[in-house]
Amino acid sequence: MLEENGKRKGRKVERRKEINLKFKISRSDIFKSLFLLFTIYHSLFTVPIYAQDLKISARVSSKRVVLGEQLKFTISFEGGSLRLPHLKLPELPGFDIYSSGTSQNVSIINGKITSTFEYNYVLVPKKAGKLKIPSLSINYKGKTYTTQPIEIEVIQGTPQPQAKTKQRLVEKSFFAEQKFNKTTCYIGEPVYYTFSFYADRMLARNPSVNLPDFSNFITENFPPRNYQKIISGKRYFVSELKIALIPIKEGTYRFPQASLTIQEWSFPSFFDEDFFSDFFGGGRSKTLTTQPLVLKVIPLPENGKPANYKGDIGNFKIKAKIDKRKLKVGEPVTLSIKIYGEGNISSISQPDFPVLPNFKQYEVISSKKIKKENYVLAGEKTFQTILVPGISGELKIPSIKYSFFNPQKKKYQTLSTEEFSIKVFPSPKEKKETILSLKEISRDIRYLAEVKKLKKSSNSLDENFIEFLIAPWLLFFVFLAFKLKFFEKLLPKSYITRKSAFLKAKSELDKKVVDNREFFERAEKVLKKFICDRMGIEKIDSIERTLSQKIPDKSFVEKTVNFVKRLQTLRFSTTPVETDVQKTKEELLELLGELQRWI
Amino acid sequence: MDMKKFLKILVFISFSTFIYANTNLFNKAIKLYENQKFEDALKVFSDLSKTYKNWQIFYNIGNCYYRLGDLPRAHLYYLKAKRLNPRDKNINYNISVVREMLKLEKREQGFIVRITEFFAERELKIIIIVLNFILVLSAFIWLNFRREFFFWLIPFSLIFFLFFGVIFYTKCEFEKPGKWGVLLESTSVLSGPSQTYKIIAEVPAGMDVEILEKEGNFVLINLPTGQGWIEESKIEKVIK
Questions:
Q1: Which of A86, B18, B65, B71 is least enclosed, having the fewest CB within 10 Å?
Q2: How far is A484 from chain B, CA to nearest CA, in Å?
Q3: Does the predicted interface ipTM exceed a cut of 0.90?
């Protein structure tokens, strides 16, 4: 029965709707549990599981506790870039469970991102003995990771002498009250609601409480608190519930009275042992009510609001740091801005990071850590970005300003971080380019093109493309034909000799001579060779006889013979002159031309 | 002889004056464009395009059509300019702008098509002529002087000659007059060369298509999804 109550209460704390307050006072344990409300945390017992990119661990603040004492239970996940599935807490039948918030931490070291998530719970053991926190299972990226179970030893405490006091039911043995820590607050400012139940004796059954509706507020629950208090000389055991309320809208909010139903013993309780309590189980039901409450939510003053104010309320401090001050071009440096203090940590907005033209800037990553210690909303939020310098030299990271409204001082405050100076050395791969973020807004066609000279459609290349291709090949094949003596193979030699006789004779005559007499000798030979080539004979015995066979014109034969005789005369003359040579050459060529027609 | 010289000079001067006058016309059209008189500028550029084939004229006509809001025709004229100067950044940028505004899909192109689009026809002709000359010269030198270098130059130049020959042939086949056109308005593609056939696709305005054949008033076009018939009046050819 007690275990079922414990489960139900745990779920209701999670839903933040209706809270069942466990308040059990047993004669033997009651004082011990009251004196040991605040625990000194001892060494941590960690049970890690390593995965490829996920590390999961469960730990408790102490493995040995006194009954009634609280212990802190933390489940943490560590990995590269975590996006966690919903965590389902295992069944913990021997404990009352209270959520005490989550924390998230993202660290960037040398450009590598490591995220850590922590789920924090407060566990209150319900009985003495060895209790077990079973292994926790979580499904991540298709794999199931489990932690090792943890065993807790719960020992009985020393009974307190006050517990032995016999008391009778009197007026004001039980009463409840609710209150705010202030009656007027600003929008976004946390207000602490406290519900307290006072009792001077044990109850037959756990009481149940109905709190007002806080649906117009963001709520953060704190773990319940038990202590004792002396009022008018009478010792009361106080159970307290505390909730932080964050108003969203202005206005006057009226909260109805909270009620608490208790089961008190219907007879004077003079038995010390639980046996009798159980034997006479049951009792009278009684409902306790509190006074209603009023809370006035007022807007933030417009007067003195800084330009960079983004709606943060609390009492914060700011600190900036960089992980290195000397680096090379292209190496990353991490800039972290930590805002910490009291207030609504979740709603802390990102301060305006400066635009640094000499750096390549990456996206800003935020992580937060909410603490509910001392029953006050506090914590820290960290904003980190990676900067990569694009040029070498002494570069500055200017200070960053952050504004918030301080409700205690009732005014806006602006804080600044320190200015950093980093030394950037050139890198061998340094690119001489200015890192500027270019953003294309829209596209339009480019401007007109200009022309220097207008061209007609056709040109020699387009018109004579094929000729350009064929011409080299034609030349090549002609060359090849000569090279391979193709024409000689194709035509008879006698024909070629006959046809080329005149050209040969002419080229022979054109050759230079040293002596003029030599020319006349050569001229005679040329004439004879010409006649041989044209007539296809090897040798000439007599020019007259040879020509007479072919040429019927006797005068022409005679003219040729006379020309030969003149050549012989000039050859042997004493002074043949240049003019004779030229004249003879012309005459001979003329004669050869005429001969060609005859033979 | 003197008379001949005089006539030559006279022809040269008159021709130069004619060219100069038309360059003035070109500049006048640019002025009209600058003064937002796009229709007048278009008319002048269009007149010049009948005689001259500078890519700048087609490019400027494309710009005029763009400013007048006729994006399909702007696309057509940019394609005409690109054919003459395929690697010009301004032409390619304007084509991308027009295609984006016409919401035309990016074409997937094979290696051969990309090579054919990379070179202008005239450039390919010069490359082929030069390679042909190197081939002949290498053969000549090797036969005469037996230099080993020229022996190896023969197969190399032959391979390149054949490669560019194939590219040139492909380009000529694709860019044959009347084989490449741009749709002036969005139109229905039919399964046969008549309005009685079934509509099988819708083609957006401005899309450039390959024309396979003609029958009556219809042309068969090649589409990524297959082939179909459209009315010839809906299409304007890049090369007429």
A1: A86
A2: 11
A3: no
Binary contact (A476, B139; C-beta < 8 A): yes
Within 8 A of B63 by CB-CB distance, chain A residues are 445, 447-448
Q: Is B136 helix (H, G, I), strand (E, B) or coil?
A: helix
Is B33 at the interface with chain A, CB within 8 A? yes
- φ, ψ of residue A230 in degrees (nearest 5): -100, 120
**Interatomic CA distance for residues A337 and A401, integer angstroms:** 11
Tell whether B77 is within 8 A of chain A (Cβ): no
- Asked if B26's CB is within 8 angstroms of A451's CB, the reply is yes
- Would you say A211 and A18 are in contact if contact means Cβ atoms under 8 Å apart? yes
* Domain contains A434: no
Of residues B165, B205, B209, B172, the one with CA closest to residue B83: B172
Q: Mutual orientation of helices A554-572 and A543-550 as an angle, nearest 10°? A: 160
Task: Give the torsion sign (CA, A447, A453, A458, A464).
Answer: negative
Confidence check: pLDDT of B219 > 70: yes
Asked if residue A501 is part of any domain, the answer here is: yes
Mutation target for B interface from A448, A457, A462, A475: give the one with most B CBs within 10 A: A448
Is B97 an interface residue toward A (CB < 8 Å)?
A: yes
For chain A, how far is it from start to end, CA to CA, in angstroms?
Answer: 148
Mark whether A79 and A175 lie in a shared domain. Answer: no
Quick check: B94 and B62 in contact, CB under 8 A? yes
| DSSP classification of residue B159 | H
Query: Mutate which of A451, A453, A457 to test chain B, going by most B C-beta atoms within 10 A?
Result: A451
Percent of chain A scoring above 70 in pLDDT: 78
Q: What angle do helix axes B89-101 and B55-67 make, rounded to 10 degrees?
A: 30
Residues in B closer than 8 angstroms to A448, CB to CB, are 30, 33, 56, 59-60, 63
Cβ separation of B128 and A469 shorter than 8 Å?
yes
Task: Answer yes or no: is pLDDT of A25 > 50.
Answer: no
Cα A520 to Cα B16: distance, rounded to the nearest angstrom: 61
Where in the sequence is the domain holding A580, given as residue range(s)?
488-598
Strands (E) in A232-313, as ranges, are 234-247, 251-255, 259-264, 284-289, 293-298
| 3-class state of residue A405 by DSSP | strand
Q: Which of A445, A462, A479 sits opposite B94 (nearest CB)?
A: A445
CB contact under 8 A, A456 and B125: no
- Asked if residue A227 has pLDDT above 60, the reply is yes
B-chain residues near A475 (CB < 8 A): 136
Indicate the burial class of A314 (C-beta count within 10 angstroms; 0-12, 13-18, 19 or more).
buried
**pLDDT digit string, tens, across residues A156-211:** 764 444 333 334 334 477 888 888 988 889 988 889 999 988 887 777 667 778 88
Nearest CA in chain B to A462: B122
Distances in whole angstroms, Cα of residue B18 to Cα of each of B4, B22, B50? 21, 6, 15
Contact (CB, 8 A) for A412 and A404: yes
Shortest CA gap A488–chain B (Å): 20
Q: Does residue A432 belong to any structural domain of this protein?
A: no
Whether B150 shows a pLDDT value over 70: the answer reads: yes
Kind plus residue range of the DSSP H or E element containing A453 = none
Q: Could you tell me which of B57, B65, B59 has the C-alpha nearest to residue B38?
A: B65
Q: Which among A130, A156, A182 is the end of a domain?
A: A156
A278, A182: one domain? yes
Interface contact B154, partner A, CB < 8 A: no
- Per this entry, what is the length of chain B? 240
Could you tell me the CATH number of the domain that includes residue A188? 2.60.40.740
Best of B32, B34, B53 to disrupt the A interface (most A CBs within 10 Å) is: B53
* Domain of residue A139, CATH code: 2.60.40
Distance (Å, rounded) from C-alpha A43 to C-alpha A142?
33
Is the residue at A31 inside a domain? no
